[in-house]
Amino acid sequence: xxxxxxxxxxxxxxxxxxxxxxxxxxxxxxxxxxxxxxxxxxxxxxxxxxxxxxxxxxxxxxxxxxxxxxxxxxxxxxxxxxxxxxxxxxxxxxxxxxxxxxxxxxxxxxxxxxxxxxxxxxxxxxxxxxxxxxxxxxxxxxxxxxxxxxxxxxxxxxxxxxxxxxxxxxxxxxxxxxxxxxxxxxxxxxxxxxxxxxxxxxxxxxxxxxxxxxxxxxxxxxxxxxxxxxxxxxxxxxxxxxxxxxxxxxxxxxxxxxxxxxxxxxxxxxxxxxxxxxxxxxxxxxxxxxxxxxxxxxxxxxxxxxxxxxxxxxxxxxxxxxxxxxxxxxxxxxxxxxxxxxxxxxx
Length: 347
What we know:
By secondary structure, the protein is α/β, with parallel strands linked by helices.
């Protein structure tokens, strides 16, 4: 009962209200409808045309549509939670969009939001839509970075004491990081999540209660991410673009549910096992190479204490700390796994 009341305070639905089968059928119907439209209007552009027949780019467009709908219509927490079931095209032959000099407008089928069109600004689609379909000012060019780069990531927060302490360290050294947050903690400490973003960092989705997603049904696994989306949106008015499955446990069934990049890592600090600052520092310094994504946790005091020395030492070695997109030098695409620079894989 306490759990249900807590969810209600941030406008989140129970799992019983999360009708996976019903909405999946709607999504399939929408896909078939899109296909039939494509056949009738074969001269029109298709998603295949504008994405170079890339399903990962199409997945990214689906997620950007959800995010833009939430932003434009100022959705509630409950409404954001349901966005994962918004009927959107899954076939490259679909043509339910209009592309002009400012927006990619997605024409929606009937939906619970009563929204007919979602207009995504083209500046959010650089690197997603091919350059030849974009105005020159939105042309994609690879992000230029220093020769030696690494990205810091922190899991399992926010923590009311340790996360603010870590944020001060990152600010002192002018280092960005991505925080993969657990929904139950965001619900308890929303102001900390707001401070993470305010400090110039990014927030990713690390599930609601930290289960091994591969052990769950697709309905429950989707619910874990949707609940956390709603909590983070309630706290920050943003929907996280990146997902990191707890324990790094992901397979094709789970990874293709979300239409978002799955961020893994190439350096496991093992801070969770050592619970020792010196050992954590030593392990990170011994295993970090150019383009690494470093996994740490902002819920252990020993981990947070290790960060200053890790930053100083890697900077002395010529490394620059960058965001995940800077590390990749281009947008991260939906339904791909990212382990480090130039190391991404499908399912």
